[in-house]
């Protein structure tokens, strides 16, 4: 600590000032200081904070805080004092110094030492830093594109003194008494001054500070009341300023306060008029960018704006397309993603032009991409915007067929040139293009996907899954018309299941088989033997997860449901290779044994229908002696799960989120003796995760860092997802107009069985306890209700009596007690 302190204290020789300012920070003098303050910051963050330290460090951190804070703060305050006196300090040293002080705000001990100096820091360090500078001016005029890039570069935020200044300002105004009042007093002094000591650049700084504090101001009644007049008196006039940076700042402040409920409607109309005018007519590119983002924020926060913007939406969209091409800024792509779905009808005739513009810009971005992160972020933003356009226009087949060619140009380029970082987005676009119909060209794309799969292996199989599902389900007849389609799907599934990948792609592969079986029922019987062989060969090797095992079993259950005699014939014919055990019996026992591993609606419904199919087979069914005692209890487990899954789906359908009134939320400021605990803990973990991921990536190690909060008392077995992620890959059994109801079918079959095969019926039911018998009766009652509802629906659809209130099945019925 002493070494680090003395490195920070060491004066930098005069001769260093002869070096150009851009290169000065690279001198060893400033490099040493950068690493010293960076290390101090990390030590404090990691070990010096009693509220965040791990148990074994608590005692150490208390000692650390009291022993070192005074000495270190003294040196860092000297550095800020030098900056205040216009002595050169390198940007990184300044940034890390402010970050260190930001941490001090949260601790009572360090705050007491800092408190007497804090307002001077705000006034003489943070305020100048947050004002428009000489360097800004030079960049604005010499290279506006670079000016925009730096202002919006998220990676820049990690090293920028301005971002550190914003963060420190926010911390002390949020957490410590009087700081907000004194800061706002300073800002108002600057904004109300006429000429004199404060010029436009200082006004920019004051507005920057006010905008940075927007979250706190909106929550304090005293300030919340004044936001309308703040905007109308001090922000809106700057839209007409002779200085471009002030016009950009006006847009930025409006974006910060876009969520405020304006007390007067004319003010909102003014806000939209000024912003749209800045976007369409301002000569300076940075102003246009800020105006576009302000417009997006207004659209997101104020419903009335939707109507106000409508007359100019075409002009605005055209301008946004020009700006996104000119700046390659992904924030502008996000603005388009907001506008297109809101004004689908107005933009219909422009859809092709929009898509073509985005595609051309995308080509331009990737052609000039030298591997920088910004280019990749922009390219993804453009692809996501293309997806937004497709989603918005998907109900209009004529427009979709126009857009398809443009999108395929982009997707073809990505797949043909193996630009793997955009595969996920490319698959999403293909999914949009196959969502309603599948054109001739799109069937050719299936071939292309198969080639990608063969080249890249199964790394992208799960990304392809939604598109493959569409090919099977959207136009099944076309899918079946060419046996190469089925062969391609089967080969992909086979490659994944034989790869021993032991990850979720295997579950998805098995799901794809099940979808093919149920979707093409009765039309692919000649393929089913290959399906069965593949599934059995995978089941005989080690299966690590219950998800994969149940999914593989489900393929067999689906085949049995569609063609039971064929399944058991195939299983018997494979018997020769397994002399000592019956494959059929093994399958049935494994199925019953794993019954509680079938999750969600679809899997349980299929299981119930599978059990019904077994009972329906009559004398030709396989021997059930070994599973008879567990047969009905297994069905009860499934129905219990189904009840929960239906309830959960009903809840999701009913969930319309109600906008909560946000009242006055005067956040607690801390007294000088308090530490800020909660806040630091979560921030600390988030930063740590972020840094760990970033640092390991730089060393070429792939790592993800997640913060998982868990309560050790919770037994993880209690948690059961009601709908599994894989249920989005639907089959005919999941359609809303599916007439096959598992409750009705189950009741009908058992009722028939009681007279047609009384001995079997007795063997099935004699094992039930009183409790289980009650459950069975409940299922029968529910079956009758669902039957009545089905009948009503049928009569209504055929033009009979109509209900004014839709008869709902009470999904949350509670019987008995």
From TrEMBL:
What are the alphabetically sorted keywords of the record? Answer: Cytoplasm, Protein transport, Transport
Spell out the subcellular localization from the entry. Answer: Cytoplasm
Quote a single Gene Ontology cellular component term.
cytosol
The answer to whether UniProt assigns keyword Isomerase to this entry is no
- Please give the InterPro entries that the UniProt record associates with this protein: ARM-like, ARM-type_fold, TPR_IPO7/11-like
Domain named Importin-7/11-like TPR repeats is located at 382-681
Please, one GO biological process term?
Answer: protein import into nucleus
Enumerate the Pfam families for this protein: TPR_IPO11
The segment annotated Disordered runs over 649-676
Q: Which domain of life is it from?
A: Eukaryota
Cite the record's Acidic residues compositional bias ranges: 652-676
Alphabetically, the GO molecular function entries are:
small GTPase binding
Please identify the protein, giving its name as recorded. Importin-7
Species the sequence originates in: Pararge aegeria (speckled wood butterfly)
